[in-house]
Amino acid sequence: MNDRTPSLDELEIFSRRLDQLIQMHRLPTGVMDSTHREMLEIALTLTHKPLPPARQIQDEIQKQITFYRNPSSRTHISKRKLVTLGLLVSIAIYIVACAVSPTIKTQTKKVLFQIGHLLFTNEITNAQKAEPYLNTPRPTPRIEETIEHQVWIQLSQEDASREVGFQVLVPHDVPEQEWERAFRPEWGNIKKISWEIYKSPEGGINVFCDCFRFHSVTILQQKAIRGYLDEFAIDNAQVREVEVRGVRGYWVEDAPTGIIGGGGSIWSLTEDDIVWQVTFENYLVWEENGILFMISGSDELNLEDFQLVAESLAP
Amino acid sequence: MSKVIEISHSKPSRKSNTSSVTLFLEEKFDQYFSRLYAYAIYRLQDPNLAHDIVSMTFTAALSRSDHFDPTKGSVDSWLFGITRNVIRKQLRARKIRELISLDSLGFQPPSSQRWVEEIAEENHLLAKLIPYIRALPEREREILSLKFGGEISNRDIAEVLGLTQSNVGVILYRTLRRLRDQLNEEAEDE
């Protein structure tokens, strides 16, 4: 195959013809060699749109523009902005208070809160510790060496409940959120949720749920172990006390605890193309009837989304 | 407790505005929809995914329209830049899912297979080109998709991809030449 670099003149002439072709949707006139003609014929074929988009989908998306121009959503945003501003001011006051008060500084240095047997600390997370090694070439440790190889066993809800000695709860009805409706792309398809249950090597039950359009969450359920504490580092994540299913819980926002990998193309899946990076996650955690519940998911899901999942949990 | 998770699409913030960009997108909706869709379909070769991508692009563009700065580039480069990011994010998410589920390696979505079959009925030469386009290196396929699907200028492609304009021209030339050589080789073999 001829991969030679074309001369500048050749390139300029060809580019001009290509632009003419794209503007006119037909082959440009004029004398040209057979190679250029064949290349332009290919270009012309490529400008023919490969099957037009569905009109219904076009209409759906056009509705989104209306959604974004709707005055009621603007009001909603103002409230959100106000809440965010309030939160930022609170955080700023908190940081200043920590800086000037050695007492607060010492007290908040390590433990942020405790729930069940989990002690949430402001130490750097395992994901952050692994970060320098994530994309280094072999034999330096890469991601697969930094994460323990663990065996996860898939179970039915009944088997999972029998294994752990308590009734494992699963999400049932998580209503479609407004932002999901804006994302509803295909003929207004109905939202369906699905889940799978796995037992982790530590003995906890993890329910992986595709609870939102494009977003999944993990719901950890584990007997709260008395007389034993396990630390869970969340670095500088924001922590807020909230009510979950009628009990006290905590909302943890932007914890750098996840590791994601990606890159390359779906058509050429090779491990070496992957770029790994640390990502932020949110958590909603509470203890209910001696069971520790922890919902984790993308930082793009908010407390309202997590609360919906929590509320939907049932046998 | 580090774990591998799948990444997901940007959730649209419910930010609203009536900026000039929003109005512009509304006015030119049909034109941009068709170009963004063609770009996405060349890039992904899956109509369902392409529809999702365009939907997400508009959502993202509308929610961030106040970030558009005309002094930094054209609407074309801004909008196609957003689409490119949405596609990359989608590909990453899909890749993670496929890596987790090893038996799905090499999986081609049914909608993509159907799409290729429908193309074959409509445009024989394009159907012949599809596997060669699919086999192109990512950068070449990206440029080809932006040029012929998105119909954007070499200058805007250069802006979107962070290349020089002349580099884009050379890559396009080589890519078309490569496709032409491959078609000719196939014809000779037949």
Quaternary form: heterodimer
Helix content of chain A: 25-40%
How far apart are the termini of chain A?
63 Å
Structural class assignment of chain A: alpha+beta
Give the rounded overall mean pLDDT of chain B: 76
Mind summarizing the main beta sheet of chain A?
Answer: 8 strands, antiparallel
User: What is the count of DSSP helices of chain A, taking H or I runs of 4+ residues?
Assistant: 10
Q: Percent of residues of chain B in helical segments?
A: over 70%
Number of domains of chain A: 3
How many helix segments of chain B? 9
Low-confidence stretches of chain A: 71-80, 100-109, 138-149, 264-270
Q: What is the number of E strands of chain A?
A: 13
**How are strands sequenced across the largest beta sheet of chain A?**
3-5-6-7-12-11-10-9
Radius of gyration of chain B: 18 Å
Secondary structure class of chain B reads: mainly alpha
Form type of chain B:
globular
What integer is the average pLDDT of chain A?
A: 74
Report the end-to-end length of chain B measured between terminal Cα atoms: 57 Å
What would you note in describing this structure?
- The complex is a heterodimer of chains A (315) and B (190).
- Chain A is an alpha+beta fold and 315 residues long.
- Chain A folds into three domains: 9-47, no CATH class; 60-109; 113-314, no CATH class.
- Helices cover 37% and strands 28% of the residues of chain A.
- Chain A has helices spanning 8-24, 34-47, 55-69, 71-100, 102-108, 126-130, 143-146, 157-164, 178-182, 303-312, and strands at residues 111-115, 118-121, 153-155, 170-171, 194-199, 205-212, 215-223, 230-233, 238-244, 247-262, 275-288, 291-298, 313-314.
- Chain A has an eight-stranded antiparallel β-sheet. Chain A has a three-stranded mixed β-sheet with strand order 1-2-8, with no helix packed on it. In chain A, strands 4-13 form a two-stranded antiparallel sheet.
- In chain A, helix 1 (8-24) runs parallel beside helix 2.
- Chain A is elongated and about 85 Å long.
- Residues 71-80, 100-109, 138-149 and 264-270 of chain A have low confidence and may be disordered.
- With 190 residues, chain B is mainly alpha-helical.
- Chain B has one domain.
- Chain B is 72% helix and 1% strand.
- Chain B has nine helices and one strand, in the order βααααααααα.
- In chain B, helix 2 packs antiparallel against helix 7 (138-149) and helix 8 crosses helix 9 (165-189).
- The longest helix of chain B is centred in the middle third of the chain and has 26 residues, at 75-100.
- Mean pLDDT of chain B is 76; it is low at 1-18 and 98-108.
- The interface between A and B is large, with 81 and 87 residues.
